[in-house]
Please model this.
Amino acid sequence: MNFSSRLLENAVNEVAQLPGIGKRTALRLVLHLLKQPKAHTQHLTNALENLVTEVKLCKSCHNISDVAICDICSNTRRNPEIVCVVEDIRDVMAIENTAQFKGMYHVLGGKISPMEGVGPHNLTIESLVERIQKGTVKELILAMSSTMEGDTTNFYIYKQLGKFEINISTIARGISVGDELQYTDEVTLGRSIANRVPFEKSIKTE
Model:
């Protein structure tokens, strides 16, 4: 792809690094921005800069937040005795959209995947164990995607928490095997949360 401007080429190359965006799509987006009033493009630039410099991870649940403790964790109307473990913020948003869950969350920041070089130490599992050690959590809901990596992560967490007196459940399998949580429709996801089952019953045995 030949460019008449080095500035244009640099901008296209940066945009093309975003997931799912190739060079042609990146060029279309950059040219669109060039046609907009400078103020509009500046708003986008400011929003991205503020995102990078000011966004935080909640000190309690590791959800993305504007403040040290996110709105969910600081909400006194939510039940702190129930914690739902999810992969990332997109899963929190998906579950919140169902309006079926009024507990707290714990965002792992990914799932165990040896093929991608992601181990337990790369996730926030240690801080999850620390939350359970405090004794305020009565039930832990494992709400990982129904994939091999999700099941592996669920089982690892289950084994780490075996010494604690806590109910560990998992979302009902209304979600098709292999599906990512964030892409599940709200009705199905809501029912899966409401009809969760003890984790022991979800473990496949020979």
About this structure: The beta strands are 56-57, 64-65, 79-86, 103-107, 139-142, 167-170, 197-198. The longest strand covers residues 79-86. Residues 8 and 196 are 51 Å apart (CA to CA).
